[in-house]
Design a protein that fits this description.
Blueprint: H1 3-19, H2 26-51, H3 57-61, H4 67-85, H5 90-118
Length: 119
């Protein structure tokens, strides 16, 4: 799946949620999606703990083997829906951020190499 295909899915889901007749304003939709993202992140954290065996026994016994992946997917989907609500071009934002990280790491690598040569 490409990022463009995923973005089309997000657009479809956004249209679906809007078609439900909910009269939420854009501001309310942004706030609801922000809260939903927090909820999904909490569920991901819970699943990470379970995957490490750091949960109560009842939660560990009923774990879905795909649970961790499913929770990652939920976080990503809701984050993209929130980005859409805020008119964020996620692809452009990712490209900018990746470039910034690469530049930062290149500086750190060069600095580390310079330090090791001094020894």
């Amino acid at each position: 799946m490409s990022l463009e295909e995923f973005q089309k899915f997000i657009d479809e889901q956004d249209a679906f949620f809007r078609s439900l007749g909910n009269s939420a304003s854009d501001r309310e939709r942004i706030l609801a999606r922000t809260v939903k993202l927090s909820e999904e992140l909490g569920e991901l954290c819970d699943e990470v703990l379970a995957s490490l065996g750091i949960q109560r026994k009842a939660k560990l016994e009923n774990r879905d083997p795909n649970g961790l992946g499913n929770e990652f997917a939920d976080v990503i989907i809701v984050a993209f829906l929130l980005a859409k609500s805020l008119n964020i071009d996620v692809k452009a934002a990712l490209e900018r951020k990746m470039q910034k990280i690469r530049e930062k790491h290149n500086v750190q690598l060069l600095s580390a190499k310079g330090d090791s040569n001094a020894l």
